[in-house]
Amino acid sequence: MSKWFTPQERGVILFLIATLLVGIAVYIYKSKTPYFAPELKILVENPAASGVDNKWQNSEECEPIDTLRSNLLEQLIQETSDKLAQQTQPTQQIEKININTAQEQELIALPGIGPALAKRIIDYRERNNGFKTTDDIIKVWGIGKKKLQLIKDKITI
Which helix (H) or strand (E) covers residue 107, if one does? Predict the structure, then answer.
């Protein structure tokens, strides 16, 4: 074998063989012991057909898998409908911010505007005697077309 394979190739082959053996052992273990995690307490739908003695079959604290699925589905539907209801509630009309008079904290309240960008907006405004149109804000470094679209309906002159 040493003539055919380098030491590195032998190592890879041994690793693959070991991985295959571990996989086969896990497969056999799972096929022989279908209740390898009894703490889950989920019943097999028809334990008599599997030929395995189900020690959880008569337990009152266990729920059949169909009941668990339906409960989880109902909970998911309820949570989703609650979130949708919150999102679709009409929001209060937010007052537009005048970019020629706004303070730093007011500018920070705009989406995508942080403290550094708010300072650059104020600096630009002071250097150029204010903005002539709301689109002039795009001249501030850090504000591009996408950010302008985010804030355009929230600002005014």
Answer: helix 104-108
